[in-house]
Recover the amino acids of this structure.
């Protein structure tokens, strides 16, 4: 039995300290998933905290045959999906929420190449924007695939989907992301031709 | 422009051999669509994991403590509502009887005593009747009849025991 399994077992017996160790270990992946899903640090912090609270309340139901990380990310993904769906139906629009953030960032003058840094930052902003355009479940699948290196089987287990559904969602999401990326690249660099892409 | 099989290669992330890689690179030079797919793939892979602000675990512990206080308060409020509601309902149901009792206590006490006396007399009569039957009945029923009666009773007892056992076993399984 490894250290993690020991903590889980102790937490299932009501040991708060053991659960704190699990929070310490998994705070980054859980926060990252929430951040990539919700796109704002405050919402991500709240969602990550809520994920751990739910995990703590339901730890007795955790099946030790499954990896703990998958179980935890599954709680986080479902919570974020619910939150995104509720956000869609609320009167508050995402555009209004985004109005608080600055329209552009001043490039870091100390960076080795300020122009390149600025371009990188713009591209990362674009990643956020294009992820926003995806359906909540597709977004969860993409985040788990790219940031957490989750296999299709793990994504399927976490999101309660079949493996073929995950494959089809990933395929569709990648296609949509590519399309959005192409559009945003054209808007940002109308003079750049496709073959001048910085990726190649 | 024909994107096959390059689009599939990019979308399914299948491993490519050297020739396929060369073909893909050549295609990407001319195809904006596949180039965007490759770029976004690369970009997604290059973005680092986001980290929470320092003190996440401490904030979780505070949140957990607050949640426990809230749960305790909710439980207490629930118990209070149930108790007050139960007392109120009981009072509302019993109020007419209490009022009547307070209006004429002697009549109520007499009726109460009469009821118990009647009940006692009835039970004694049933007992007497039963003892008479038990004295007379054995003579009327042949040994075969006794065997049938006892076997039927034994069967019912067995059925009852098995039902109880199965019912309790089902409940334990459901809790697991």
């Amino acid at each position: 039995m490894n250290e993690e399994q020991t903590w889980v077992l102790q937490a299932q017996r009501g040991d708060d300290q053991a659960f704190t160790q699990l929070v310490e270990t998994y705070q980054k992946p859980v926060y990252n998933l929430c951040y990539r899903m919700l796109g704002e640090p405050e919402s991500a912090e709240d969602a990550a905290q809520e994920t751990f609270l739910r995990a703590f309340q339901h730890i007795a139901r955790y099946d030790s045959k499954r990896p703990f990380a998958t179980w935890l990310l599954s709680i986080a993904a479902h919570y974020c999906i619910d939150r995104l769906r509720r956000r869609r139906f609320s009167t508050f629009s995402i555009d209004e929420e985004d109005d608080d953030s600055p329209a552009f960032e001043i490039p870091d003058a100390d960076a080795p190449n300020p122009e390149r840094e600025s371009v990188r930052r713009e591209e990362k902003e674009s990643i956020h924007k294009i992820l926003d355009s995806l359906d909540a479940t597709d977004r969860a699948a993409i985040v788990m695939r790219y940031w957490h290196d989750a296999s299709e089987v793990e994504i399927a287990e976490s999101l309660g989907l079949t493996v073929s559904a995950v494959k089809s969602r990933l395929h569709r999401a990648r296609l949509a992301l590519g399309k959005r990326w192409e559009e945003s690249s054209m808007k940002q660099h109308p003079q750049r031709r496709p073959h001048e892409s910085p990726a190649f | 422009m024909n994107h096959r099989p390059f689009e599939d290669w990019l979308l399914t992330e299948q491993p490519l051999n050297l020739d396929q890689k060369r073909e893909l690179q050549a295609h990407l030079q001319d195809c904006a669509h596949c180039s965007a797919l490759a770029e976004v793939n690369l970009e997604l892979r290059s973005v680092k994991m986001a980290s929470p602000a320092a003190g996440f675990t401490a904030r979780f512990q505070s949140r957990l403590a607050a949640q426990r206080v809230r749960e305790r308060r909710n439980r207490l409020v629930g118990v209070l509502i149930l108790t007050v509601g139960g007392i109120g309902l009981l009072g509302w149901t019993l109020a007419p009887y209490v009022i009547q009792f307070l209006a004429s206590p002697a009549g109520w006490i007499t009726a109460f005593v009469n009821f118990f006396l009647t009940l006692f007399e009835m039970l004694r009569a049933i007992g007497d009747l039963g003892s008479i039957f038990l004295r007379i009945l054995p003579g009327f029923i042949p040994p075969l009849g006794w065997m049938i009666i006892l076997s039927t009773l034994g069967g019912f007892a067995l059925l009852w025991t098995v039902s109880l056992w199965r019912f309790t076993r089902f409940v334990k399984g459901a809790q697991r």
DSSP finds six helices and no strands in chain B.
